[in-house]
């Protein structure tokens, strides 16, 4: 919700929230299988946050930042 408010100036719709949480879960599953994938995708550490969790949320942020609604002001 905070990501949507900061990037798009509005709260996420329920369907949007659900899709992003599904995406995050898929990323976490991928990082569980490919142990070094999280570090390759997101090469930073966040204090108190496991690397795979930080990388999964970085992926979610990337999706939101690439939405047409973020990139284009109409």
Describe this structure in words.
- This protein is 69% helix and 0% strand.
- The protein contains five helices and no strands.
- It has helices at 2-8, 14-33, 37-41, 51-65, 68-71.
- Helix 2 packs across helix 4 (51-65).
- It is elongated, with a radius of gyration of 13 Å.
- Helix/strand class: mainly alpha
What overall form do the CA principal axes indicate? elongated
Strand content: under 5%
Radius of gyration: 13 Å
Oligomeric organization of the protein chains:
single chain
* Helix content range: 55-70%
Task: Summarize model confidence as the mean pLDDT.
Answer: 93
Taking pLDDT < 50 over at least 5 consecutive residues as the criterion, the unreliable ranges are none
Helical region count?
5
Distance between the termini: 22 Å
Strand elements, count: 0
SSE order: HHHHH
**Main β-sheet, in a few words?**
none
Structural topology:
Elements: H1 2-8, H2 14-33, H3 37-41, H4 51-65, H5 68-71
What are the main properties of this structure?
74 residues; mainly alpha; 5 helices; elongated
Give a brief description:
This protein is mainly alpha-helical and 74 residues long. The protein has five helices and no strands. The two termini are 22 Å apart.
């Amino acid at each position: 919700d905070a990501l949507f408010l900061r990037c798009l100036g509005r709260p996420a719709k329920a369907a949007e929230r659900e899709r992003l949480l599904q995406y995050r879960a898929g990323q976490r599953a991928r990082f569980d299988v490919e142990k070094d994938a999280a570090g390759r995708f997101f090469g930073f550490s966040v204090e108190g946050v496991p690397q795979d969790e930080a990388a999964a949320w970085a992926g979610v942020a990337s999706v939101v930042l690439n939405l047409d609604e973020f990139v284009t002001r109409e």
